[in-house]
Amino acid sequence: MEHRNLGGCGLRVSRFCLGTMTFGESRTFMKGATSSDEEARRVLDAALDAGVDFLDTANVYSEGRSEELLGEWLGARRPRVVLATKCRMPAGPGENDRGLSRRHVLAACEASLRRLRTDWIDLYQVHMQDTRTPIEETLRALDDLVRSGKVRYAGCSNYTGWRLAEALGAAQRLRIGGFVSLQIQWSLIVRGAERELLPAARARGLGVMVWSPLARGFLSGKYRRAEAPPSGTRLGAWKERWATFDREPHWKILDTVQEVAVKRQARPAAVALAWLLAKPECTSIIVGARNAAQLAENLEAAQLALSPEEVAALDRASTPEWGYPYDFIAGLGEAW
């Protein structure tokens, strides 16, 4: 398994990161789409055996059970893995049990450390921007966690471009470390991050972690035009989400993926993931797996190097209408 530096910092991470959102029985948004505790442990064992030593979770996944499972599993393995988790989403009923205030960031970190049964978190990420809290307050809280040794590095996820620039500028002004990584949704179906977030990450040397690289499984090849999603699949359980994917432009993208897959004798999922691996901005792809077989299928992408022509074909098939001012700038022959 290839490893890379996480952006401009010295932390080395595997090119694939195991996402654990499906670990632990959920009573909320992941209900019906999670793994049993036993299967989750098998997936974790298989990931580490395959060289995937980068694990991503969050305090709200399965209402904290995902972190608990990792804590139970880690034990003596803890020094072998790079452990990432997140805070920001509601973790209780109170007004201060959410957001990125100093109070909540510090309290959420302590709770995650207890569930994970560890003394430190390698990468502590804010799960989404919080417009109610001054960014300086959040950054100082994260910096204090780093200085205390409870956190090694700080990252962010689900930011707008201008909010990311604001945070990076504030850290520079305060002369503190700030964010070293950016976690984004990115796939052949969802390419909006290419407008502002990826150029900012390139310019400021941020590592990029990609979530939902298969677009909720749509790019896995298991779905068919004019057919209901197979039972037991995530999009089969989430009818409203399925309606957002069941569109002709998306089917045309999947057609191109499958054409490349047939040519290369590979699975469609491997082609979609290999497209991301071919992008220089992509540091690590977060792959979720409800069982060890799914994990093995996703990791096949590590052995698939797409040609420049294949990458270009997938680019053309999936390029959205960027809108103003991007199309205007490109129309004048300038880069954005």
How much beta, percentage-wise? 5-15%
Integer average pLDDT: 94
User: Which percent bin holds the helix content?
Assistant: 40-55%
Number of helices: 13
Structural class, by secondary structure, is alpha/beta
Domain unit count: 1
| Main sheet characteristics | 8 strands, parallel, barrel
Textual characterization of the structure:
The radius of gyration is 20 Å and the shape is globular. The mean pLDDT is 94. The chain has helices at 37-49, 65-74, 102-116, 135-148, 161-174, 197-204, 234-237, 239-245, 248-264, 268-277, 292-299, 308-318, 326-331; strands spanning 3-5, 12-14, 16-19, 54-56, 82-87, 121-126, 151-157, 179-185, 207-211, 284-288. With 336 residues, it is an alpha/beta fold. The longest helix is centred in the last third of the chain and has 17 residues, at 248-264.
Please give a handful of descriptors for the protein shown.
336 residues; alpha/beta; TIM Barrel; eight-stranded parallel beta barrel; two-stranded antiparallel sheet; 41% helix; globular
